[in-house]
Specification:
By secondary structure, the protein is mainly α.
């Protein structure tokens, strides 16, 4: 998974745009994100075993995700990628995935 999936902002803290979307306890969201990313990038299917099919768009529909939320989440994820400093091919793949995934979660224009 991504080493930056912790209190660095990948799941809401301390970003003022993202924080209202998350419950007080960020640990379950951090864990789910880490499990999902690990599975997505070829690790064990721990996310699916625990939560079922990822269905990311469906799981995010209860939350108003507009361009501002997309941009804030993407910035956090790209900062985590920068922190990792992976090889160029890995960096490109991560950046492309996060850009695609962040855009796919938009469900409002407000």
């Amino acid at each position: 998974a991504i080493a930056g999936v912790d209190q660095t902002g990948c799941v809401g803290e301390p970003d003022p745009v993202l924080r209202p979307l998350y419950p007080d306890d960020l640990v379950p969201g951090q864990r789910a994100l880490a499990l999902f990313l690990g599975q997505y990038w070829g690790g064990p299917p721990a996310y699916s075993a625990e939560k079922g099919n990822p269905r990311l768009r469906m799981r995010h529909l209860p939350f108003a995700i507009g361009p501002a939320e997309r941009d804030a989440w993407l910035a956090a994820m790209l900062a985590a990628v920068d922190e990792l400093a992976p090889p160029a091919t890995v960096e490109t793949a991560l950046r492309e995935y996060f850009e695609m995934a962040a855009t796919a979660m938009i469900n409002t224009q407000s």
